[in-house]
Amino acid sequence: MISTTLKTRLLASGASALALAMTLAGAAVAQTSSTTAAPAAPAADEASQVEELVVTGFRSSLSKALDVKRDSIGAVDAILAEDIAAFPDQNLAEAIQRLPGVTIDRVGGEGHQITVRGLNADFTRVRINGVDAIATGGGNRSRGFDFNVFASELFNSITVRKTQSADTPEGSLGATVDLQTGRPFDYKGFKAAGSAEGSLNSITDRILPRVAGLVSWANEDQTFGVLASVAYSKRQPVAEGFNTTRWQGRDATDNFAGCTICTSPAELAKVQNAFYPRIPRYTASKIDSERLGLTFSTQWQPSDKTRFDLDVLYSDLDQFTESPNLEAISFSRSNAAGVGSTIVRDYAINDRNTFTYGVFDKVDVRSENGIQRDHTKFTQVSLAGKHDFSDRLRVKGRIGVANSAYSMPEQISFQLDRNDVNGYTYDARANDRTPIINYGFDVANPALFTLTEMRSRESTALNIVRTATGEVEYDVDEYLTLRGGINAQQYVVKYRDKSRNQTLTGANQVVGVGAFAKVVRFGRDFPFPGGDRSYVVADVDKALAYTKLLSYPLIVQSGDTRDVAEDDLSGFGQAIVNATVLGGMPLKADFGARVARTKLVSKGFVNTTYITAKNDYTDVLPSMNLSLEPTDGVMLRLGVAKVMARPTLGSLTPGGSVSATTRTVNFGNPDLEPFRATNYDLAAEWYFAPESLVSVAVFYKKIDSFIASKTTQAVYSSLNLPTSLITSAGAAPSDIFDVTNPYNGTGGTLKGVELQYQQPFTFLPEALKGFGFIGNFTYVDSNVNYGTEAAPNYNKLTGQSKTTANATLYFERDKLSARVSAAKRSGFLTGYPGSNGNSEGGTHGSTYYDFSTSYKVRDNLTVTLEGINLSDEYTDAYVDVADRVNDYRHTGREIILGVRWTY
Q1: Rounded to whole angstroms, how far apart are CA atoms 717 and 725?
Q2: How far lies 811's CA from each of 25, 522, 523, 821, in Å?
Q3: Do 825 and 801 meet the contact criterion of CB atoms below 8 Å apart?
Q4: Where, subcellularly, is it found (predicted)?
């Protein structure tokens, strides 16, 4: 175990390494310049010659990315690997967040999903090697793409297309992200690269490996080549923090049993109407993950007019999580057995109607320990080909299949209870994010706990995307190109869920759990304010052996068992113009339209009845993009397009639940039509010097149809549900039920502006040359209706931050390369409307700082040092505009030392 002092020194030295490296490099260059005789003044003809500027490494990748942006007709941003298997960030999502308008969500300290221009992952379409893909990790039941499934070393480039073109298949309101793995024709001849790194986390004090390798060969004529790469990494973060699982507001069933300190009915009413935490607890989830990625690519070019590309990608992410908790479970039970039996002995309530302090009697305390194994296996194979029939006529096609198979082979937990505890204390008066909790008894004594529940669950989620595309392109003349094509895609989703949960009663309960318990201690690197810190939890392996839980039969969970089969067929026609106008200004434009037909079959359970539903719809999606260069280095862009994004998978299931007793129905809506919008984009870019850019872009999205949830009343017989679901409980088909389900609402608007600046500081004195800067700022505002047309309820989109900003200061000269980056986003909603009487759910803003340095020991050997999340930023999630804490946790800093070799 590394000592705390050593750990602190490591982190401090890592944080200062970049600044020191930059300073010493500048000084070394200055010293070299001062001790070298000044060269003679060049002759006139030599002085008039333009020196060729050659950039390498990080600056080279920035320069190539700017070329991609400048040459495109629509709004495009790109990130390119600076060297073989050397992507500029440890995680794909963390790399993408450097681009304007892109933010990421972190899970377990790692980038997970992205939001582009205020639209979350469900509105972003991702393609790998030109083929649509959905990569799903634990708990993902949407169309959102989990970037943490993949190692960044496997990819050469990321391209984010923010405007829609007719030749880009439909399915995005926000952006289309293209990920490209390496191919042999990217390099000449034989190339090889390898890297080995060790990562140290400030909480766990463990050094863990990260290795990658690539081998590529192409013959001298570049007619045939093969490439293979591999990447492996191991992570063991600990997510320490405090959470409440929301806060509870008063309803008709959740009154406290009494308040001994209350002296008047008014004071009692104040206590009864205040918000209290549902399950207050400290938690330290220990995560152990391994990620393996493989790519293979072969390219064959039998002639100058024909080429075939075969790409194979495999990724395997295996994760194990253990989450011990000690919690007051009765606050989450709005009945006589829960908060209805609790007595308030002392309290403090702030001006936001929130308990900040309380001493309670008759509280049920629960020790819960659970483990979960998650396994995601992603496989993709794609074959692309193109052929030029003549200088004017070209065709290309692609077929591919992407398979993302997620499984949770075990989710096991044991619940140890001690009921009716007196003197439970919750004190958040000093800091509501880190309250002091005392449980009123010796929580480290296993004899005082009783085993009351045990749970086991297994689930799988299979996503298969099959794609076939074909395009033809014809140059009418040097100014006009016509393009057309067809895209067929089949999307298959299968969810399965089973459990063997057991609630123990009477003599089946185990009083005294010493035979299968252990004591854990919370808080390795967390500002723990005081209270009970060590407590008993079940040792899962011992508890399994003691209880024989896994011998109980598995029961199908109907609510999470469903299927979706979606067939998408689309075709497009497009004209591409490349001309000069108004006295010689270059103009590039594309005009076209895509027609998309969607057919859907969805299946799901309503209680125990399996139901099948069908739906189909057609969209006509015109688009236009213009790029005008009024003067050298200045680009003006305009984009207008109709766009659509298909509904999330969870909304499409016909499954749900029916309660004849309460006359309620909750289910999905397979008749949903997609999100539809009209996008307007305008941008001005100034490439004022090599590797340099100043740009501003404004965008506006008119969302015509936004999927929301509503509750209406309907006669049961009109719902087309089996009458057998209600007649056995005494209800009749003519009875009126409250029906809650998603529907196509009235929509709203989204607007924003992006600013971008990039420049190497070549104007600095010779001693300081090598510095440069990349920065961007995005402002987004949205207003969508979460209610109905008759009862509107407007707010901003979930996942949308009003402001985001990224900045990178870099230094690159001779053998040294260094950069420090900051990524900042303002707060955003995570759920709206809120639950349990709260207006909303959200997460406060954050700022992450990273650095990276490398020194080239030899031409083919480089030493690297990186730091991730240097400030150890906390995730701070809340509920309600009153800012009641929901989750407050961190995962620590990471320092990574490694070497990279190329041949």
Answers
A1: 11
A2: 9, 41, 38, 12
A3: yes
A4: Cell outer membrane
What value does the mean pLDDT take over residues 5-24?
A: 38
What per-residue string of b and e applies to 595-604 under the rule 16 or more CB within 10 Å gives b? bbebebbbbb
The C-alpha atoms of residue 446 and residue 510 are separated, in whole angstroms, by 11
10 Å CB burial of residue 221 (0-12, 13-18, 19+) is exposed
Which DSSP helix (H) or strand (E) runs through 27? helix 4-34
- DSSP-based three-state secondary structure for 627: strand
Q: Are strands 131-132 and 803-813 parallel, antiparallel or unpaired?
A: unpaired
* Three-state DSSP class for residue 308: strand
Burial class (CB in 10 A: 0-12, 13-18, 19+), 236: middle
Q: Which residues, including other chains, have CB under 8 Å from residue 221's CB and lie 6 or more apart?
A: none
By three-state DSSP, how is residue 516 classified? Answer: helix
Give the pLDDT of residue 26.
38
**What CA–CA distances, in Å, run from 489 to 364, 570, 596?**
53, 9, 11
- Domains of the chain are 4-17+58-902 (2.40.170.20)
The answer to whether 774 touches 692, Cβ cutoff 8 Å, is no
CA distance 516 to 520: 13
CA atoms of 308 and 221, how far apart (whole Å):
15
Neighbours of 653 (CB within 10 A): 27
| Main-chain phi, psi angles of 87, to 5 degrees | -70, 150
CA distance 723 to 738: 16
Cα angle, residue 347 at apex, residues 341 and 350 outer, rounded to 5°: 120
Q: What is the Cα 580 distance to its own chain's centre?
A: 43
What CA–CA distance (Å, rounded) separates 655 from 604?
4
* CA dist 362 → 259, 261, 345, 435 (Å): 12, 15, 10, 20
Q: Note the pLDDT tens digit of each residue in 323-335.
A: 999 999 999 887 6
8 Å CB contact between 797 and 783: no
| Paired tokens of 621 | 């999606």
| Range in 195-209, 781-795, 876-890 the model is least confident about | 781-795
* DSSP strand pairing (363-388 vs 306-328): antiparallel
Classify 412 in phi/psi space as left (phi over 0), alpha (psi -120 to 50) or beta. Answer: beta
In the chain, the amino acid numbered 562 is: R
Other beta carbons less than 10 A from residue 735's beta carbon: 13
- Would you state the pLDDT for residue 836? 82
Confidence of residue 253 (pLDDT cuts 50, 70, 90): low
State residue 2's pLDDT score. Answer: 41
Q: Is the pTM of this model over 0.85?
A: yes
Residue 342: partners with Cβ closer than 8 Å, 6 or more residues away: 256, 257, 330, 331, 360, 361, 362, 363
- CB contact set of 735 (below 8 Å; sequence gap of 6+): 663, 715, 716, 726
Q: Which amino acid is at 441?
A: F
